[in-house]
Amino acid sequence: MRALVVEDDAGIAAGLAASLRAAGYAVDVCGTVASAWTALAVEPFDVMLLDLGLPDGEGLDLLARLRRLGERPASAPPCPRPDMPVLIMTARDGVSDRISGLDSGADDYIVKPFDANEVLARLRAMLRRAGGRSRPVIEHGELVLDPAAHTVLRAGEPVTLGAKEFALLLTLLQAKPQVLSKARLESALYGFGEALESNAIEVHVHHLRRKLGEHLIKTVRGVGYFVPRDDTAQGRAA
Question: What global pTM score does this model have?
Answer without folding.
Answer: 0.77
